[in-house]
Amino acid sequence: MVNEQDRVLAMVDIRHELGGNLYHVGGHIGYSVRPSERRKGYATRILAEALKKCKELGITRVLVTCNKDNNIGSAKTILNNGGVEDEAFVEEDGNVVRRFWIKVK
Ligand SMILES: CC(C)(COP(=O)(O)OP(=O)(O)OC[C@H]1O[C@@H](n2cnc3c(N)ncnc32)[C@H](O)[C@@H]1OP(=O)(O)O)[C@@H](O)C(=O)NCCC(=O)NCCS
Predict the structure, then answer these.
(1) If pLDDT is split at 50, 70 and 90, which confidence band does 105 have?
(2) CA-proximal residue: ligand 1, atom 34 (nearest)
(3) Ligand 1 site-directed mutation target among 76, 80, 97, most atoms within 8 Å of CB
(4) Which CATH superfamily is domain 10-103 in?
């Protein structure tokens, strides 16, 4: 996502398949917003755009994950886009990963 001056505000990546450990950690979509541009709704918007792209790619059930600790902004971004929480995954170091499914209509 860029503004009128082509300054990057946010980025998103889509993983077409849940290979490796992506079913537990990472999921189909990852996103990040430039620190100075946070809390302006950009993550919510870029996730919505990525979900449209997933539909084009034929991914109809999209997994999105976030760490339980210190990532309320990401959890809210997922919930804003219709995320339904599944079982969490606990990594070897004890980090708890929240996992959400979003049905793409
Ligand atoms: C997590 C992240 C993507 C959120 O981006 P953002 O553009 O600030 O998110 P939004 O503005 O769309 O905010 C979504 C909601 O979360 C809330 N929120 C965002 N950051 C928050 C924070 N630090 N503390 C509490 N609430 C927060 C917003 O107020 C908003 O709430 P609302 O829907 O009730 O209005 C951003 O902080 C980031 O890039 N973090 C580093 C990378 C990362 O963690 N990526 C996600 C990996 S799962």
Answers:
(1) confident
(2) 76
(3) 76
(4) Gcn5-related N-acetyltransferase (GNAT) (3.40.630.30)
Show me where the domains of the chain are located: 10-103
Q: How far is CA 71 from CA 66, 87, 96, 103, in A?
A: 7, 17, 11, 22
The pLDDT tens digits for 22-74 are 999 999 999 999 999 999 999 999 999 999 999 999 999 999 999 999 999 99
Long-range contacts of 77-85 (CB under 8 A, 24+ apart): 77/31, 77/43, 77/44, 77/47, 78/47, 78/102, 80/44, 80/47, 81/44, 81/47, 81/48, 81/51
Question: Of 8, 11, 36, 74, which is best to mutate to test ligand 1, by the most ligand atoms within 8 angstroms of its C-beta?
Answer: 74
